[in-house]
Amino acid sequence: xxxxxxxxxxxxGSRMKAGINKQFLEIDEKPILYYSLDVFEKNNKIDFIVVxxxxxEEETIKSCIIDKYGFKKVKKLVVGGNERKDSVLNGLKxxxxxxxxxxxxxxxxxxxxxxxxxxxxxxxxxxCCACGVMPVDTIKVVDxxxxxxxxxxxxxxxxxxxxxxxxxxxxxxxxxxxNREGIEVTDDTSVVEYFGHKVYLYExxxxxxxxxxxxxxxxxxxxxxxxxxx
Length: 230
Prior knowledge:
Elements lengths: L2 E7 L16 E2 L2 E2 H11 L5 E6 L4 H12 L4 E6 L4 H10 L6 E6 L7 H14 L1 E6 L7 E2 L5 E3 L8 E9 H14 L6 H7 L5 E4 L10 H15 L2
Parallel strand pairs: 1-4, 1-6, 4-5, 7-11
Antiparallel strand pairs: 2-3, 6-10, 7-10, 8-9
Helix pairs in contact: 3-5
Function: Catalyzes the formation of 4-diphosphocytidyl-2-C-methyl-D-erythritol from CTP and 2-C-methyl-D-erythritol 4-phosphate (MEP).
GO molecular function, one term: 2-C-methyl-D-erythritol 4-phosphate cytidylyltransferase activity
Pathway: Isoprenoid biosynthesis; isopentenyl diphosphate biosynthesis via DXP pathway; isopentenyl diphosphate from 1-deoxy-D-xylulose 5-phosphate: step 2/6
């Protein structure tokens, strides 16, 4: 069985207000993208990696991250599209002879082997799965005037993370249909759910944050210190 990974690194990260792609911001003198790639590179269940990037950053990612740190499993760099779904489809199209694909945000540097291994295990069993965590805050459903309508139980809610994991043929077919029909989706689980497929949700990690804002960067450095320097 061949398992591939798509790492999405094409976002501009405007909310970070750093003047550069957030993938290049550093934690302990290494770019954020390095940490995501490093875990997949070292996991013996992963066969190859496709990185989706912006056209003007392709050479930088290749020379300053892939070549510099010797990531041998990164087989292809692909230019992203206008939206996330376009970027994912671009990555899917360059994969050959693959049975399963894990789709991961490059801005989630603290993915771990347990999450990867369980994602593969549950994909074999259920065809589609994603990791996530129970929200720490109470979530409210609001009406059009922003009055609270309903308070779901936190035990019924999952904040979905990545990787999101799929049988390759299934996710590619669904992404191609979404593309042809112009359907709006928020993530890859939404793509398969739109066509009636169930997604199994398993336990992620509160450390598996997506770095989006300057406050997230502060938290990421604290997580790094807790995981790797103590």
